[in-house]
Design a protein that fits this description.
Elements (H helix, E strand, L loop, with lengths): L1 H4 L11 E2 L2 E2 L4 H5 L2 E4 L11 H11 L6 H10 L15 H13 L5 E5 L7 H16 L3 E5 L3 H7 L2 E6 L2 E7 H8 L2 E7 L16 E2 L5 E6 L8 H10 L4 E8 L2 H12 L3
Parallel strand pairs: 3-4, 4-5
Antiparallel strand pairs: 1-2, 6-7, 8-10, 8-11, 9-10
């Protein structure tokens, strides 16, 4: 899909427009609006960092702007290596160059295709600081990632694609509210052989060793049922020594969505 939008692959059907410009019939205007940081590293090994970045800007018909290129290279910690040839750089540095090339022509939409796959912690931190800055300036960031925690931290809206089908696209907070869940885990003083019949209608789960009772509830509802459950446990003489609550992460929601849509 990214390849089609960015003009790398020819679409066999359908249409895509970016900022009101069709990617086929109004290619130049559409293409100038977005930048791409691909998953693979493709650079001219014998060019310098400065030359390849400024050349990328020129490809989009943008006038020379050394101040902008310098700002991009500094933000990616590449300024000290601006005169170095690409072949002398580490993998992490080459990844930074790919980002600099994508930002050279000041795109309004930036595609990041698994940008942190196999990169060092320092680069990942720098990258997310840059992404936040771009987002605040009005640039739309489209991030594809298998690191769900990154999407949970960075994204405003989440899209889930399963086997080529878009399962959903939704505001992150609304998604977490609608599909997320909370669990109360009670660590019992004495193990139980099974959930007491009196508690059968509460949907409780008992751990394999019988020492944990797990209660799933919707934290957004005014009546979570926790108070009634604790009162009922006391009436039944079931004592607990500790309790904790946990909340679904975006990764949990993603896995559940994919499983739900999987064929039986």
């Amino acid at each position: 899909l990214i390849g089609i939008i960015c003009g790398i692959l020819r679409p066999s059907g359908g249409s895509v427009s970016v900022g009101g410009h069709d990617i086929v019939t109004d290619y130049r205007a559409a293409r100038s609006l977005f930048g791409l940081v691909p998953q693979e590293l493709h650079t001219d090994a014998f060019e310098t960092v400065w030359a390849t970045t400024t050349f990328s800007r020129g490809l989009f018909g943008k006038p020379r702007n050394d101040a902008h290129i310098e700002n991009v290279l500094r933000s990616l910690s590449l300024w000290d290596r601006k005169d170095s040839k690409i072949l002398t750089l580490s993998g992490g540095m080459k990844r930074r160059v790919m980002i600099a090339k994508a930002l050279s022509h000041e795109p309004r939409v930036l595609f990041l295709d698994e940008p942190t796959a196999g990169v060092d912690v320092e680069l990942r931190k720098d990258m997310w600081e840059m992404v936040r800055s771009l987002r605040e300036s009005g640039v739309t960031i489209i991030l594809t990632t298998h690191y769900i925690e990154e999407a949970e931290e960075m994204a405003d809206r989440i899209g889930v694609i399963n086997k080529g089908e878009i399962v959903l696209v939704e505001n992150k907070q609304a998604l977490m509210h609608k599909l997320g869940r909370k669990q109360l885990t009670l660590h019992l003083q004495q193990p139980l052989e099974g959930v007491p019949p009196e508690l059968a209608n509460r949907g409780l789960e008992l751990s394999a060793n019988g020492v944990e009772l797990i209660y799933t509830f919707d934290s957004q509802h005014e009546a979570t049922g926790i108070a009634g459950l604790l009162r009922q446990l006391n009436e039944l003489g079931i004592d607990f020594k500790d309790l904790k609550t946990t909340e679904s992460s975006l990764e949990d929601i993603f896995v559940n969505l994919v499983r739900r849509d999987a064929p039986d």
